[in-house]
Each structure stands twice: as C-alpha cells, then as structure tokens.
Design a protein that fits this description.
Blueprint lengths: L1 H19 L6 H4 L2 H20 L4 H8 L3 H9 L6 H11 L3 H5 L12 H10 L4 H33 L1
Length: 161
Amino acid sequence: MTYFCLLNIIDMLGSHFQAVKPSGGTLMNVVSNPIQESLLGFGQRLREARERLGLSGAQLSAQVGVQRSTVAQYEAGRAFPSFGVLKNLTRVLGVSIDRLVFDEYEVAGEIQDKELLEYFARLDRLTHRERTQVKDFIDGILAREELEQLKKVSRRRKRVA
C-alpha cells in the first residue's frame, strides 16, 4: 500500500517540477537527490527488465502504449510513469511494481524463479495437512542450509584466531 502513495506523490511532484523548471534546466536540476536517485534506479531496473526479455525500447513502448521517447526518458531517469503506465510496464515485463520501483534490497520475499512460483501457485490446491507438510519440508531444507552457513563462518573464525 505504501508504494501506491509514493507513486502518487512522485506523479504530483513530477508535474509540479515540470511547471517550475528553469529555462534551459532539466527536471533533474530541480528534483531533490532522493527523488533523483529513485528515478535513476527505476530507469536502470526498467532497462534491465526490458533487456532480460530481449525487447527493444520500441517493442516495449508499443506493448505498453506509450511513445518510444517516453520509455527512453523513463530509462534515463528523466521521467516517471503514471500509475496506469507502471501497471502496464509490470504486466508486459512480468515483474512486480516493487521490483521496478524499489531497489532489490528493499523488496522482501519476491521469488524470481518462475518454475518455483508455479509450484507455489499449485500448492493452493493441496489440503491444509499437505501444505503443512510442504512447509515443514522447506523449513528443514532452509534450516540445514543455515546450519551449513554457520559452520562455514565458524571455520573461518577458527582459522583467523
């Protein structure tokens, strides 16, 4: 829910900044550093998502319903899409709004593995007991992995000491 508020604020600020843009200046000259960094990060993540699918900027713009130059502005961090365009971008690119808007370290719990996502979607068809068994199995695997990581750290510390 928070990112919806952020998007609306950025939309409002973006139109305000366009209106007060100094002659010869750019939007980036007027926008404060945190928003500028957000726009640049968004643009980079947008480009990476587009390239991962092998789409050109023109192909993406056609599928989303915006001009090619608009996509170029998004990717360069000079503009931010409206919420409607952002929804279309995420649909076409197959990523969440969180993944595009926020840094990957700010996005918690998003699974990138498509096959794993399909398995999890199918888990809804299982009984409560079967889902609990799957969760217990996953917990066991994760606990074993965490234990292995702790062992590695412990061995490194012993070597250093």
